[in-house]
Write a structure and sequence with these properties.
Layout lengths: L14 H8 L1 H40 L1 H4 L1 E5 L8 H7 L2 H5 L2 H6 L13 E6 L3 E2 L14 E7 L6 E6 L14 E7 H7 L6 E4 L7 E11 L5 H4 L8 E4 L8 E9 L14 E7 L11 H13 L1 H10 L3 E4 L2 H44 L1 H9 L4 H30 L5 H26 L19 H27 L8 H21 L1 H12 L5 H10 L6 H36 L3 E4 L8 H6 L4 E15 L6 E6 L1 H11 L16 H4 L4 E6 L1 H7 L4 E4 L5 E9 L12 E4 L5 H4 L3 E6 L3 H8 L4 E4 H7 L4 H45 L4 H34 L6 H5 L15 H28 L3 H9 L1
Parallel strand pairs: 4-10, 6-8, 15-19, 16-18
Antiparallel strand pairs: 1-11, 1-12, 2-4, 2-11, 3-4, 5-8, 6-10, 7-8, 9-10, 13-20, 13-21, 14-15, 14-17, 14-20, 16-19, 17-18
Helix pairs in contact: 1-13, 2-11, 2-13, 2-14, 2-27, 9-10, 9-11, 11-14, 11-16, 11-19, 11-27, 13-14, 15-16, 16-19, 16-28, 17-18, 18-28, 19-26, 19-27, 19-28, 19-30, 27-30, 27-31, 28-30
């Protein structure tokens, strides 16, 4: 007879479900922490991609189609070809047939907007049209580009007349063609439907261009019209070699695409061209290397060779798109490391908080885990159960955070967000098992004391701390060496981003080792005090856990990141303000190419918000000495201009340095030597001897340099001379610019100036400096990262206090039975929390100061401040901001004291029986 063994009954309640039900509050808290951290971690790369793409599109928009469109055109090497072949090459089909192939060449590497791209024939030289009915501002005939571009009907609507036509047999000998002009060209140049313009020809009568229509551009700002801006809007300009600055118009005549051969008879040197307009909304900042490679290939590479093959003629390429990409890359490379500082700092604090949460859970369950080890539980089995228990909570929470980040900040590169959220989930899952394994390697029933003062770290901990300290110091020294020796080229190195974390690690390890020394030194003198609160609080501070590296590292990193971020933002704001002031020269500026009306000064003085007005006469093309190099000369009133220089803090000087000794220049004659303020370059060139200067109007003065300044308000540049305006000839002394101080109303100034002067407002220039989404987006991400880091620092402080909360409550209950009052209990907890709070505040302040001083040579804030590599006010360096150093440190102390006082108040409201029983149970 076979006896069957009774089967061992299976556990009804598995481990994971039992543990989750036994502590639902802790599980919910962990889920919230993981979800919030995963959301921030996943949102960061999506936000960076988002503002990077917006910044690239904004750079394309600011540059304009004239710089971003890739223009391919035939070279003029075919001028020796037979006339019939040249005419055939300029017909519409000769440009249309290869257009489809050229349009498809860049592919996905450089998305092209086919709707804004075009082809055609145009003159490369402007031709002067002397017809008398055309507008001639200074009796100078206007000049025109003749353009036969495809797609005119699709990109415009007729405002009057009809679109031009052209027969199939147009040749170089054709004497008349039809054309259209834009509505703005017709209005400004006095052109009507039916007007005939006579374009000079070579060896025959002029080419008659009859205007058959006036068109209104549908999208004048798009690439079709704005690549060649004169197509939709004529330009009023002057000749560089004309001393009288006579102005004339430059416009465009729009021919039918098949009228190209007729341009051979003019002096305009026609050519075929193909314009490839990039599609801005399809460009991404992270694809910048591929975009730059595609542009380089189109300029002088395989794609240009393939385009030449499609055209069956050598092609040349012209574009500034590579420069636009380079400017964007420079701005992004300058902003990236600064944003990464906040990202690394916040990430470190978040990781420390997750580790602290796992450590708190392990400490809370110390008795349970010790009992399990005593009953035979293996480390592997215990770690596996804890890992499963944590993963059930952390993985869904991280997935929820990822989904929220995806909905909040949509972005194309989801794998980066998934990786970030997965890293958060992994860290949250392993924090508790690792802490439990480290604490319960050996089977024991009672744990030894781990007081801050009495504890002696093990040799393993000492070796690990020394190793980390050596690596961190080596990395910081390497960063400092690169940042100073390479002239700041370390800005692209990852060490720049890790510097606050490395400094925080060094400071945390050093301070944890040094912190017991003052406590030991104060323990004996404090024992002689009469009161009980002081010695007891000092003793309690010494009974703090010795393993305080993680909380201190979290606080120091958060304080360093916050203070560094405050210094960066303050430095950027200061740099923008100084750049706007240097660019305008005052709070507002009114300037004209010629003399300002005499009554304008009075009108401006009466405008709302105007405090003072300084009149200045500027001669931009004055020739000192030999007359080969021009130097701008500004005539100013010494007293008013000195006050303006002091107000703007640009090139301040003493009033007496510029004052002349006599009356007006007309009464003294030209031989009077005028004292001058000069730039360093001009001073080095001409020295301190008197030298003559010939002004724009032909007048002459003699100046002697008496002072040197880097900058001056009215003139921006490396070369200038500033003299007393009363010493100039009457014609040259008439004001050409007005510099306004105060808080002027922009509308009132523009109304007073009318068409007589161009108005610049400092506040508007300041706003223009933050026009790039790359700047504003980076600042928002930085501010959010600093705020998140601060929140995690507060959470780390709360976790530290929460760890000691039960023991503190039991202590107060015991002391109250011995006669301790509630006020004494509050003071006890406050004084007990002060040493660590002061340690974190002082260490954070010193660490932040060291981080700013360390990174200052490697970070240039100029690009972040003004979206350019150079600023009118010079280089914007990173400087320490006292407010950013003091406020976070004081906040930590205030928060620690507040939490301790709140805990004492709450404990005073409760009875003592429960705390005493809890203390006995412990």
């Amino acid at each position: 007879m076979t006896v069957r063994r009774a089967r061992r009954p299976r556990a009804v309640a598995p481990w994971v479900r039992t543990r989750l039900r036994s502590a639902p509050g802790a599980s919910v808290a962990l889920a919230v922490l993981v979800a919030m951290t995963a959301f921030l971690a996943a949102a960061l790369p999506l936000a960076v991609d988002r503002y990077g793409d917006a910044g690239l599109r904004r750079s394309m928009e600011v540059a304009g189609p004239a710089r971003t469109t890739v223009q391919l055109y035939t070279s003029h090497d075919n001028v020796v070809m037979p006339q019939d072949m040249r005419e055939a090459g300029l017909r519409e089909e000769a440009a249309r047939e290869p257009y489809v192939k050229i349009l498809a060449l860049p592919g996905d590497s450089l998305p092209v907007d086919a709707g804004q791209s075009s082809y055609g024939v145009r003159t490369t030289q402007r031709v002067e049209v002397p017809d008398p009915f055309l507008s001639q501002p200074d009796a100078v005939a206007p000049q025109f580009h003749l353009i036969a571009q495809s797609g005119l009907a699709e990109h415009s609507r007729p405002a009057a007349g009809r679109l031009p036509k052209a027969p199939e047999d147009v040749t170089a000998a054709t004497t008349a063609v039809e054309a259209a002009v834009s509505s703005e060209t017709a209005r400004k140049l006095n052109i009507e439907v039916g007007s005939v313009l006579h374009v000079p020809a070579v060896g025959r009568d002029p080419l008659a261009v009859r205007i058959t229509g006036i068109v209104e551009p549908l999208s004048p700002g798009e690439a079709y019209w704005s690549t060649t801006r004169v197509m939709h809007s004529p330009n009023l300009t002057t000749r560089p070699d004309d001393p009288s600055r006579n102005q004339f118009w430059i416009g465009a005549l729009l021919l039918h695409p098949n009228a190209g051969p007729a341009l051979l008879g003019t002096v305009g040197m026609p050519e075929r061209y193909w314009m490839l307009a990039p599609y801005p909304s399809a460009l991404h900042g992270y694809d910048l290397p591929e975009l730059k490679a595609a542009v380089a290939s189109l300029e002088a590479g395989p794609l240009l060779q393939r385009a030449s093959t499609a055209v069956s003629s050598p092609l040349l390429a012209e574009t500034s798109l590579d420069e636009v990409f380079g400017e964007y890359a420079g701005l992004r490379s300058a902003i990236g490391p600064v944003v990464a500082v906040a990202a690394f700092g916040t990430g470190t604090v978040a990781a420390v908080v997750l580790l602290m949460a796992g450590g708190l859970a392990a400490d809370r369950r110390r008795a349970e885990l010790t009992l399990l080890r005593a009953r035979g539980a293996s480390l592997r089995g215990l770690a596996g159960r804890l890992l499963a228990e944590t993963a059930v909570v952390a993985v869904p929470a991280a997935s929820l955070g990822l989904a929220a980040a995806r909905l909040t900040v949509p972005g194309p590169r989801l794998p980066y967000a998934v990786s970030a959220a997965g890293a958060v989930a992994l860290l949250a899952c392993v924090a508790l098992p690792l802490r439990a394994v480290a604490a319960h390697r050996a089977v024991r029933v009672h744990a030894a004391r781990d007081d801050l003062v009495s504890a002696r770290p093990s040799r393993r901990r000492t070796v690990a701390e020394l190793t980390l300290l050596t690596l961190a110091v080596g990395a910081v020294v390497t960063l400092r060496t690169r940042g100073t020796s390479d002239g700041g080229t370390a800005s692209g190195d990852e060490l720049v981003s890790l510097a606050p974390v490395l400094l925080g690690m060094i400071a945390a390890l050093v301070l944890v080792r040094l912190h017991p020394l003052p406590l030991r030194g104060l323990a004996r003198p404090a024992g002689r005090l009469r009161g009980v609160v002081g010695p007891l609080s000092l003793a309690r501070a010494g009974r703090a856990p010795g393993s305080a590296v993680l909380p201190l590292l979290a606080l120091l990193t958060a304080l360093t990141t916050a203070a560094f971020g405050g210094s960066v933002l303050a430095g950027v704001a200061d740099a923008r303000d100084r750049a706007a002031t240097a660019a305008v020269g005052a709070d507002a500026r009114l300037e004209a190419l010629r003399t300002l009306p005499a009554e304008l000064t009075g009108k401006v003085r009466r405008a709302p918000g105007v405090r003072d007005v300084t009149a200045v006469s500027v001669s931009y093309y004055a020739y000192p000495s030999d007359g080969r190099l021009s130097v701008p000369v500004a005539g100013v009133d010494p007293a008013g201009y000195a006050a303006l220089a002091r107000h703007t803090d640009i090139g301040t000087f003493d009033t007496d340095e510029l004052k002349t000794s006599g009356g007006s220049g007309a009464s003294r004659g030209d031989a009077e030597v005028l004292p001058a303020l000069a730039s360093p370059d001009v001073a080095d060139r001409y020295g301190t001897r008197p030298f003559p200067v010939r002004l724009e109007d032909g007048g002459r003065i003699t100046v002697r340099i008496v002072a040197v300044r880097e900058r001056t308000p009215v003139l921006a540049g490396q070369e200038f001379l500033v003299v007393d305006r009363s010493g100039l000839p009457p014609a040259a002394a008439r004001p050409t610019a007005l510099l306004v101080t105060g808080h002027p109303d922009a509308g009132a100034l523009r109304k007073a100036a009318g068409d007589a002067a161009r108005v610049q407002i400092r506040s508007e220039r300041l706003t223009a400096f933050v026009d790039s989404p790359l700047q504003s987006g980076a600042e928002r991400v930085y501010a959010a990262a600093v705020a998140a880091g601060t929140g995690y620092a507060v959470l780390a402080l709360l976790l530290t206090l929460l760890r000691a909360a039960p023991e503190r409550a039991a202590l107060l209950a015991r002391l109250r039975t011995m006669g301790l009052t509630r006020a004494q209990g509050r003071r006890l907890l406050v004084l007990e929390s002060l040493p660590q709070a002061l340690l974190a505040a002082a260490g954070g302040t010193l660490t932040a100061w060291a981080a700013v001083r360390l990174l200052a040579p490697g970070i240039d804030l100029t690009t972040i401040a003004v979206s350019a590599s150079s600023s009118p006010a010079g280089r914007a360096a990173l400087r320490t901001d006292p407010v950013s150093l003091a406020v976070p440190a004081l906040a930590v102390v205030a928060l620690s004291v507040g939490i301790a006082a709140a805990q004492a108040w709450w404990s005073g409201r409760k009875g003592s029986v429960r705390e005493l029983r809890a203390g006995d149970a412990r």
